[in-house]
Amino acid sequence: MKEFVIKFKLRDNISFLLNREGWTLSTLSKKSLVPYETIKKLCNAKIENPSIMNILKIAEAFDCSVDALVGRENALAEKIRRLPEHSIQIIDAVADFEERLIIKNYKNNLDKILVFVVTGKMEDRMIFDSTYFESVNVHEYKKIYGDRMFAGIKITSKVFYPAYGEGDILLLARDRYPAYGETGVFLKDGRMYIRKFYYGNPSILMPLNCIGVPIEIDNMKEWTIFGYVLTVVRQKME
């Protein structure tokens, strides 16, 4: 089962990174010294047990960690050490909320996760400089998605209708990069976008309701991927 999951995460992550760098399969093969046919099979999820040596070579070519390439946890501690004090305070606040939530879940046999509620007017290209936290019980969804769900984000306006309505909660995962056509939450220059993602040269962020201008992305490194949408909770917050 573990190998089954890894091969699909490798496929999605390699595809995303190829588009981010603007590389072809041949380019990756030359830079990583991994045979072209092996690269092709990895990108089609045809290899059940990928060689750790090939994974390492591909990660080095993309200048990323093996953990990031196969969808495991990244080097969070290293990132935190490089952050300024105000960023540490934000992380500390989230950690406090999560700690209380874990205790509450344990005592009451619940499966609640943190939900981000963006302050101010929620719209496409909204300012993402302040949030507060709520929680939602995802017990039924956990049966389907397991621990892939890391948080939710609450829709607080009607601007995304009919795709999402006011009060909807988008359950997010970030165990891999968004697949072609998936809806994700993207951040750049202090603004947040909830859009469908399409690989390409350039890649495209497409408005959910087809109202608005598609955003062409020439350099994916300028963007932060907050998560991709697993499903939607259409119920009142508890």
User: And the CATH topology of the largest domain?
Assistant: Umud Fragment, subunit A
Sheet-strand content, in percent, reads: 15-25%
Count up the domains. 2
Uncertain residue ranges: none
Biggest sheet details: 10 strands, mixed
The shape, in one word, is globular
CATH class descriptor of the largest domain: Mainly Beta
Cα end-to-end separation:
35 Å
SSE run: HHHHHHHEEEHEEEEEEE
Mean pLDDT: 85
| Structural classification | alpha+beta
The CATH H-level superfamily of the largest domain is Umud Fragment, subunit A
Number of helices: 8
Helix share bin: 25-40%
State the CATH architecture of the largest domain.
Ribbon
Structural overview:
The relative contact order is 0.12. The radius of gyration is 19 Å and the shape is globular. The mean pLDDT is 85. Strands 1, 2, 3, 4, 5, 6, 7, 8, 9 and 10 form a ten-stranded mixed β-sheet that branches. The chain folds into two domains: 75 residues, 434 Repressor (Amino-terminal Domain); 149 residues, Umud Fragment, subunit A (Ribbon), CATH 2.10.109. The chain contains eight helices and ten strands. The protein is 37% helix and 24% strand.
Give the SSE layout.
Layout: H1 2-21, H2 25-32, H3 36-43, H4 52-62, H5 66-70, H6 76-81, H7 85-108, E1 112-118, E2 126-127, E3 131-137, H8 139-145, E4 149-154, E5 169-173, E6 183-188, E7 191-198, E8 203-206, E9 215-217, E10 224-233
Parallel strand pairs: 1-4
Antiparallel strand pairs: 1-3, 2-7, 4-5, 5-10, 6-7, 6-10, 7-8, 8-9
Helix pairs in contact: 2-4
